Amino acid sequence: MKKALVRLVRQSPAMIVAMLALFVALTGSAVATTSALITGNQIKNSSITGLDVKNKSLTPRDFRGSVRGPRGLRGLPGATGATGATGATGAKGDKGDAGVPATRLWAVVANPIGASNSTLVRGAGVVSLSESTYVEVVFNQDVSNCAFMVSRNSPNTTTETAGFVQAHSGATPNAVQVATRTEAGAITDGNFHLAVFC
């Protein structure tokens, strides 16, 4: 031991400095090696960011809960499918209620010029005819709130004399009075067709 110390003392200063440098270098790397091992207890919560983690080094198993990426772009709608086959014919529905029948009130009257009395040629719902200045057609129901349509027309295939015709409510609720006139407007005998709509 004494011989070793003597030899160490006899070394040149340069050699001693070199040996000290080697010793420091060796012990420093050992300290650095042990200090490079960082545990979870040494990391402060919320101090590690994404920049501190190597890309693709973590997997979903390394995270608590599910990991979802950003929502992708919405795709374009698909093409419309072909029209399906026609379904079977359904059962026949119940018959509907009968509608209200339209009134059938009308008269074709012959009242040729110079005749003493007008005549009912054909018609429906007519009870009687009477003639004075007007021809009064009496029906089998109240027609005071109905609509009258009258035309100067022949009861057969002959052509009626030109002129005008008027219709209005008669003396009773069931009656319609018809007046035929010449082209000049004077009262005259004349054939006509009358229809009543209620």
Gist of the model:
This protein is of the alpha+beta class.
Mean pLDDT over the residues: 80
What's the total number of strands?
A: 8
Unreliable residue runs: none
Radius of gyration computed on alpha carbons: 61 Å
- Which structural category do the helix and sheet elements fall into? alpha+beta
Describe the structure.
This protein is α+β, with helices and mostly antiparallel strands and about 200 residues long. It has a domain at about 105-195. About 15% of the residues lie in helices and about 25% in strands. It has two helices and eight strands. The longest helix is centred in the N-terminal third of the chain and has 23 residues, at about 15-35. The N and C termini lie far apart (about 145 Å).
Lay out the secondary structure.
Layout: H1 2-10, H2 13-35, E1 105-110, E2 119-124, E3 126-131, E4 135-139, E5 147-152, E6 164-169, E7 175-181, E8 192-197
Antiparallel strand pairs: 1-2, 1-8, 3-4, 4-7, 5-8, 6-7
What are the key terms here?
16% helix; alpha+beta; 4-stranded antiparallel β-sheet; 198 residues; rod-shaped
